[in-house]
Specification:
This protein is of the alpha+beta class. The protein contains three helices and five strands. Helix content is 37%, strand content 18%.
């Protein structure tokens, strides 16, 4: 990997290239996300999107014309007691938070949501690992209507 190929460097360049409030907002969101858990990893996907992961994707950040969107990959599965999600509420998978100019970040609530996303990813990974370790192999794929011979 050469200089400039690390995902964090791409994200640095993206933020530096946004010379209005959206760059500041994306930088502040990034800082809050990374402060939440030291296991969070930054990735650069889809030729221009910062992604934060921990045992799976947590969120994607994008600066749009009039907003900064923070999209949680499994947001529909997360409890959001502070009602941060304000976009994608009708979908079955993702949920997002749209930040507009002048908005502030409720860091405590955002960190709680990120921790919930990490816990969700852990539960998904552990359930697959538990199934594998219990039998010593990956769970068998079952065909409906057919019985497994023993």
């Amino acid at each position: 990997m050469s200089i400039g190929d690390h995902p964090s460097e791409h994200i640095d360049q993206l933020i530096a290239g946004i010379d209005d409030w959206r760059g500041e907002m994306l930088a502040a969101l990034r800082k809050t996300i990374l402060e939440t858990d030291p296991a969070i990893v930054e990735e650069w996907k889809w030729k221009g999107s910062p992604v934060w992961s921990c045992d799976g994707m947590l969120a994607v950040g994008n600066a749009h014309k009039a907003k900064v969107k923070l999209t949680f990959a499994h947001g529909a599965k997360l409890v959001d007691p502070q009602r941060l999600f304000n976009a994608g509420l009708g979908g079955s998978a993702w949920r997002a938070i749209d930040f507009l100019e002048g908005d502030t970040i409720d860091q405590r609530a955002l960190k709680e949501l990120i921790r919930a996303a990490i816990a969700y990813n852990h539960s998904r990974g552990q359930s697959s690992a538990a199934k594998k370790s219990a039998s010593g192999r990956a769970p068998a794929k079952r065909t409906p209507g057919k019985r497994r011979e023993t």
